[in-house]
Amino acid sequence: MAVVISGKELATIRRNKMKEEVIEFGKKYPRLPHLVVILVGDDPGSVSYVTGKGKACVEIGIKNTTIKKPVTITEDELLNLIDELNNDDTVDGILVQLPLPKHINSDLVIKKIDPKKDVDGFHPINVASLYLKQDGIVSCTPKGIIEVLDYANIQIEGRHAVVIGRSNIVGMPVSKLLLDRNATVTICHSKTANLAEITKTADILIAAVGKAKFVKADMVRDGATVIDVGVNRDLETNKLCGDVDFKDVEPKAAYITKVPGGIGPMTITCLMENTLECYLKHMEEK
Ligand code: GUN
Question: In principle, which of 10, 110, 135, 137 could form an S-S bond with 121, CB 3.0–4.6 Å?
């Protein structure tokens, strides 16, 4: 039987702390933190994420503006909107919900966001800062994964961490964060040969593949810590499920996260933390 690490529980602790901090900020600074979220189109997944972000802002006391744009918005119109928000002194954080429609180049859009307001940590300047160990904004899901490991007192230093997935949003940055904490890191991907042989050597296994129930018990070492970053729909039950087959893997693992209630709530919590970080730097600059 594994210990189930609750990201939801940690998220509640962190959000309560932020709520108190925001009250104090309100006394110290002329205005409250302000996050602007841009949603293009009406993809149900994106709408749900944006709604969750808005709710978290309300809970913590962060001002939230969600700007909804039709799927027909042109790239130039979106870039101009970001420009306006970059120049708006009452805005601390800007998030453009991804994915964007095919006619819009996401790289250009991300690059347009002022790195100081890039609460996602996706701007090349922030990505480079992570790799160079310089001050910058760290993207939310990788940050949340490390916070969850620390919350459960999982030793990272000297352990073998295996990350399945090499995306810019999760796989690559979490690998760097684990390396910075002195883990020995192996990154696996769709072309990895003998995947199970490698994942079976993991003390810490991070599943960020985007395939429902991809990780099975025979891919996991006895006593491993298994972190599930997946957000998938189980086609049989139509329920939300992770990249890890929880029922199969749980008896083998020592620690495991669940979907939902694992990394997801921490991603949004870290987004709130990043927003406060941007706000504080913004306020201190004045
Ligand atoms: N779409 C899925 N995850 C994310 C995220 O973390 N940030 C943004 N902006 N879009 C997403």
Answer: 137
Ligand 1 geometric centre to CA of 124 (Å): 16
* Domain range annotation of the chain: 30-114, 140-264
- Tell me if 231 CB under 6 Å of ligand 1: no
First to last CA, the chain: 53
Q: What is the Cα–Cα distance from 128 to 133, expressed in whole angstroms?
A: 8
Give the pLDDT of residue 11: 98
Residue to mutate, 48, 49, 117, 274, ligand 1, most ligand atoms under 8 Å from C-beta: 49
Which H or E run includes 124? helix 124-132
140 lines ligand 1 (CB under 6 A): yes
CATH of 30-114, one of 3.40.50.10860, 3.50.50.60, 3.40.190.10, 3.30.1600.10: 3.40.50.10860
Low-confidence ranges of the chain (pLDDT < 50): none
For domain 140-264, give the CATH superfamily: NAD(P)-binding Rossmann-like Domain (3.40.50.720)
Distance CA 15, CA 37 (A): 19
pLDDT tens per residue across span 52-97: 999 999 999 999 999 999 999 999 999 999 999 999 999 999 999 9
CB-CB contact of 171 with 139 (8 Å): no
Whether 120 is a known active-site residue: answer: yes
Verify whether residue 134 is a known catalytic residue. Answer: no
